[in-house]
Amino acid sequence: MPIYEWLFPFIRPLPTELAHQLGHWTLRLPVSWGGSPPQDPFTWKGVRFRNRVGIAAGFDKNAAVLPGIARMGVGFVEVGTILTEPWGGNPKPRMSRLPGERAVWNRLGFTSDGLEPVAERLRGFRERDRSGLVIACNIAPHPRTVKTAGEDPNFLDRAREELACLARGLHAEADLIVVNLSSPNTRGLRDLLYGPGFRDELIEPLGEEIGALDAAAGRAGRTPLLVKLPPEDADGKPWTPDSIAACAEPLSAPGACDGFVAVNTSIGLARDRSLSPDPQLPGGLSGAPLRPLAVAGVKMLAELRREDQLLIGVGGVDRPEDAVALHRAGADLVEVYTGMIYHGPGFPADCARALAEAG
Ligand SMILES: Cc1cc2nc3c(=O)[nH]c(=O)nc-3n(C[C@H](O)[C@H](O)[C@H](O)COP(=O)(O)O)c2cc1C
């Protein structure tokens, strides 16, 4: 019997955060969770992925279990969200499982060890790793800064400087950089994404900073910069072709960003289920119920992106066929998170195998 199936009955009754920590602990065991890594190489802008499946942001926020993730046989991982300074997140209760729906509700709100220790761990991993695991660093402005939006006239300058600082600290270890302005769990964060001018005020300057770092390091081309999008508009309603275009089309202008990760967790689905004790902070729902929103969002983005932009699909992959459906909708690569909570650490490699077979 696979070791995870043996452990799962003991993990399942535990509180969700504790189960997550135990899951991390089991990943430290020297086990090849997914069998031999599925080989389905994909190369984009000089970045070579051994296969098309990765682990979504939020699973390894602090680069704590990268060797275990490499042993899962995936092609890549999004580490983070990484903040400049440590942050403890929102008060509990802030995470629970909905096994009947194979979903997870969370309003963690960026628990982070902060830039320095995370960069140090990434350096250590890079020195030792021989797996070729691609690393995307997922970054965001600090919740303390986001909180001052609307009060502090220099707020955007500070958010911009924080993103630049994260890029400087992580650049040497990052194959890709992802900006996350779509987490529902830091009040005011998504407003940055929907608000006017965020491309000019935040994304373009970050791209310029990354370009300067690449030039100084003698790297050919710019380290790709992606933007992570939510599954819904500012009111928590699923995207329509018009609402997603208003958000993503400016980012598809030449020089803006190099691609998208779609989608983050859903406020709308969390609200429908009244899962949060605080109506001001409804949290986000992930897992199987998110799948239709993720597939629809990826389809719409595939229509409006520039041809050379990368599209990573994520949301509701609960069976290997779901990964294939996201790929068919237009995603070049697919990420998994909640599905792994229910199906174990061998699940992402099963998805990668299904994608390799689907061609
Ligand atoms: C507990 C938890 C924490 C998460 N934390 C982050 C995060 O820090 N940054 C981020 O960009 N996305 C985060 N996400 C969102 C996931 O990366 C992903 O977009 C979402 O869960 C949908 O995929 P899934 O249905 O396969 O879980 C988190 C998700 C969960 C369930």
Task: Report on this structure.
It is a single chain. The protein is of the alpha/beta class. The model has no long low-confidence stretch (mean pLDDT 92). The protein is globular. Strands 3-4-7-8-9-10-12-13 form an 8-stranded parallel beta barrel, surrounded by 5 helices. A 3-stranded antiparallel β-sheet has the order 5-6-11. A two-stranded antiparallel ribbon has the order 1-2. Strand 1 and strand 2 form a beta hairpin. It is built from 14 helices and 13 strands. The protein binds flavin mononucleotide. Flavin mononucleotide binds next to strand 4, strand 6, strand 11 and helix 13.
Reconstruct the topology from this structure:
Blueprint: H1 3-11, H2 16-27, E1 42-44, E2 47-49, E3 53-55, H3 66-71, E4 76-82, E5 95-98, E6 103-106, H4 115-128, E7 134-139, H5 143-146, H6 155-170, E8 176-180, H7 189-194, H8 198-217, E9 225-229, H9 241-248, E10 259-262, H10 267-272, E11 284-287, H11 291-304, E12 310-314, H12 320-329, E13 333-336, H13 338-343, H14 347-358
Helix pairs in contact: 6-8, 9-11, 11-12, 12-14
The structure holds flavin mononucleotide.
